[in-house]
Amino acid sequence: MKKSSMLDLLVLVVRRDLVLAMRRRADVLTTLIFFVMVVSLFPLGVGPEMGMLRKMAPGVLWVAALLASMLSLGRLFSADYIDGTLEQMMLAPQSLSMLVLGKMVAHWMVSGLPLVLMAPVLGLQFDMSVQALVVLIFGLLLGTPILSMVGAIGAALTLGLRGGGVLLSLLVLPLCIPVLIFGTGAVEAASTAMSVSPHLSLLGALLLLALVFTPWVTAQALRISME
Amino acid sequence: MKLAINWFKYSAPSTFYGLAGKVIPWFAISSAILFAAGLYIGFFVAPTDMQQSEAYRIIFIHVPASILSMFIYLIMAGYAALGLIFNTRLSSMMASALAPTGALFALISLWTGALWGKPMWGAWWVWDARLTSELILLFLYLGYIALHASIDDPRRADRASAVLAIIGSVNVPIIYFSVKWWNTLHQGATIKFTGTSMHVAMQQAMFTVLAACWLYAIAVSLARVRSIILERERNTQWVSELPEAKL
């Protein structure tokens, strides 16, 4: 009974945030357009030589995904903070960690998933092989939720601060480096015909670790910020 | 039992302020003496290295700075955790007092490493595992300082940056290993010193400078924590009664 009510809560929060996001579609689209633009700038910046682009593609896509997810993190809690919803959520008898997890999932579905779906198209622009693309998608599927979850801690810590956006990137980007390394490492391994499973397994391990710890840490950070 | 009481006595900022003031000169003076001795041994006693000629002498500052930059982060996170868990004011103040010194050592370590790398590797910077993780450590310090500085309420600043410091300390091993696995190809470039292959005078110079850096870090952080205590407790009775506050 209790278990199902926790799950209901999660679904409720995810649905609520998704509905809110759908009502403001421009926010979702700007993140996606930012991602596409950043990726498209690289061939213009370094020149259109295909061999080099193919080599750079995983790194460029991953860094762009990292930056794009930073862009939308500021909004994760701020709207609820401003209109007082967040305070009500903290007063609610349900577990704050669960509510936070719901918000993380919704954030990923709004800002991470579109990037994952968009990545193959951009990968083709960089002349990536099909095999490398498949690995890239798997890596992004495992990695982007970690970015949302680790980012949520930063968003909670910088809630309501002046200059929060830049500060947030300063805090979160160093923490996301392992995700970047394993994500690009997997694609590199695929293109040199080595086993990709160690990289993807490590990404999966990081995802599970993040899934267990980050909701609780974010809840604590929110309590500190809301005092 | 008596010892335990003494420890708690100095966990109050008002008593610690006086104690820190008394011990700072000792740490500072012994640090200066050891710096002079270590640098003397390093520059005049230690022999010239066969492979690296004179340029190797930069390790006498590079290695101590690197060790301390990592160690101070752990101590800082430890103090931050103490402050967060037991709500002790002084622990949080110590954590924020240690951060600039740690960042300074990380910067010195990177800078001297670059100066050494140019003649040795032919490049100022190599994306080697150690270099990259040291750089990320510097970023973590800067993030901690920036977060602390941008929150006006000192209590919230302490607690929020404590959470960040703890996450950072958990993440540092992950970052270190991820970077190491990512760049296994470049590992051969790192020239490793083992205790046995090192000349005795070199060892002496390095450990003397290490001790000097250590004492310097203690002296400077205590001086900084005294300033923080004065700033935070400026409206209290005991601060207004201090001789230096009456001037």
Could you please describe the fold and organization of this structure?
The complex is a heterodimer of chains A (227) and B (247). Chain A has 10 helices and no strands. With 227 residues, chain A is mostly helical. Chain A has one domain (2-226). In chain A, α1 packs across α6, α3 runs antiparallel to α6 (96-125) and α6 packs across α10. The longest helix of chain A has 30 residues, at 96-125. The two termini of chain A are 32 Å apart. The model of chain A has no long low-confidence stretch (mean pLDDT 88). In chain B, 39% of the residues are buried. Chain B has one domain. Chain B is 77% helix and 0% strand. The radius of gyration of chain B is 20 Å and the shape is globular. The longest helix of chain B has 33 residues, at 13-45. Mean pLDDT of chain B is 83; it is low at 185-192.
Features:
heterodimer; A: 227 residues; 87% helix; globular; B: 247 residues; mainly alpha
Rg calc of chain B: 20 Å
Strand tally of chain A is 0
Structural class of the helices, strands and pairings of chain A? mainly alpha
Summing up helix and strand content along with how strands pair, one would put the structural category of chain B as mainly alpha
The helix-strand sequence of chain A is HHHHHHHHHH
Strand content of chain A: under 5%
Q: Which regions of chain A have little confidence, pLDDT < 50, spanning 5+ residues?
A: none
Largest sheet features of chain B = none
Major sheet summary line of chain A: none
